[in-house]
Structures are given as C-alpha cells and as structure tokens.
Amino acid sequence: MTDMPSCPFCMRPKSSRKYKFETCAIHQCSGCDLMFLHPKPSVDALSNVYDDRYFVNKQFLSSDQSHLYGYVDYIAERINKQYGYSRIVSDIRDRLATNEATRSPASPRWLDVGCGLGYLLDVAFDQGFAVEGIEFNPHAVQYMQSKYTYPVRCATVADMELDKKYDVVSLMDVVEHLYDPFADLKRIRSIIADNGVLLLITMDSGSFVSRALGSRLEDFRRIREHLFFFTRRSMKSVLAECGFTVESVSSIGHTFALDFLLTRFALVSRPLAALLRWLIWPRWLLDANIYINPGTKMLVVARPSAPGTKAS
Ligand SMILES: [Zn+2]
Question: How much distance in Å is there from the Cα of 29 to the middle of ligand 1?
C-alpha cells in the first residue's frame, strides 16, 4: 500500500499514513488534521455491517478484527447511556431557552440521525421534545417501530426531505460512520432552524489518550464502520465549511459497570486487564458502576452560522 490519498475534505494532496491495518490504513491530512480510512470500504461492505447482530454482537470480543463492529450488548447499556443522555438533553433545553426565538415553543422538534434503538429519543421525548429519528439499520428501525409511536424512518441523510425544520438535530456516535459527512452536514444545515442546535458526539482523535493508544484504541480499530476521525480543530473546520459555528466542545465520558469496562480494556491489553481483574476485591465491586472519562470522546454543540459567514 504505497498510495497517499489526498484529503477528502480540504483536498490537500499526500496525506500521511498514521495507523496501518492489514487491509487498510488511517491517514491524516497535514493541512486540516482530519483522519480518514483508506481505502474506504464499498457501500455494500458497509451495509453488511449494519445487520441484525449490530446491537448484540457476541463475537465482538474475539481476537478477529473482522468482528470488531457494533456493540457486545447494546441493550445492557441502555440505563447507563440514558443517564448520560438525560444531562445532555437538559443542557440543550437550557440553551434553547436562552434564545428569544426558541424559548418555549409548544414542543421543540428534535431529529436524531442514526437513532439506533431510540435511547436518546426516549430521553428527549420525556423532556418535552417532539422527536423523530432516522436510522439506516433496517433491523433497528423494525425494533423502534414495534416499540414506539413517534416517527422513525429507515433512511440516510441523503434520503431526507428538506421541507421541515428542526430545533435540534443530533448525531450521537454517527458522523464517523457517514460515507460523505461533508455533504450530509450541509444537508442537515438546511433543515435546522436558524436559532437551532446541532449536537454531535464523536471520537476526539487528537486527545492525549487517543494519540497514546493509537491503533490499539477500539475507536480506531473499528475499520469496518469508522471512516472519519476528527480532532477538535478539524471538526471546527468541517462544521464551518458546512455552515455551522461551534458553540462549545467538551470531553465526555460514560458510566460503565467495572466488569464491562475490564472486558473492553482487554482489547487494548489482555494481560493488564487480567491483572486488574485479579486485583479487584471485594469481588462485588465488579458490578459497581463507575464514570470514566479518558478524553477520547468529544461533545460538540454548534449553531447555524449567520448567512454570509465565511469558513475560516
Ligand atoms: Zn485536509
């Protein structure tokens, strides 16, 4: 593999190869910092990933990298995920309330792009939002439609109608999966109300821990589904180009059961994970929930830029 592709965002020629895997590599643009998988998997190969095993992938923890996608048991993560989401949704409500134009509309409209099994929509619904979701995994959509009454469509961003406006559009652990995130974010810009909010969670590829662990980090190793990796700087550039101004970027952690955390840590270092597990006493501590923030994920809140604002 000798070709050094140009950056798919700023088009600067000759990226540098950062992390090499058997069949592909993650490259980084020296101009804008964006990291991207090369070669990109075909659309067919990607659609095979989002199958009925995506949310309960029992082979995830095998040493075979081809199984490293989706979730070991997403259903079991529901309570902890929703605990984190409830604080985020409250924060967004507060942000909307500070703005004259979005203060107390009957029910502010929230679209979750890549809504998975609806964990975020559930929380936003409970906090008074009129919620909708789109999701490109048909199995997840089937599950959602059998469980909830609010609208969920099997669609990609490119399929979305542009005749509605939303007060909030969210992409939680989604932007790194998009085949063309630049086109999709521009399209999303056109359906956000001028005083609305764009909310993103994605990996922070420039954080200390991300750089220190490199290709051992699970987010980088998910080469069947993660196509783009953003630093804070490249995220700001991409959003500016797509018509957004970043309002805040913060590091975000997650609440895990200790047992679950050690199981995942074994993907980074099996001997160290085994040692830590052996050291934990009393054993019931393995079931305890702990909040951990290694700084590998960022929460980005952005607003539509005023018309005529130039990307810098
Ligand atoms: Zn670039």
Answer: 5
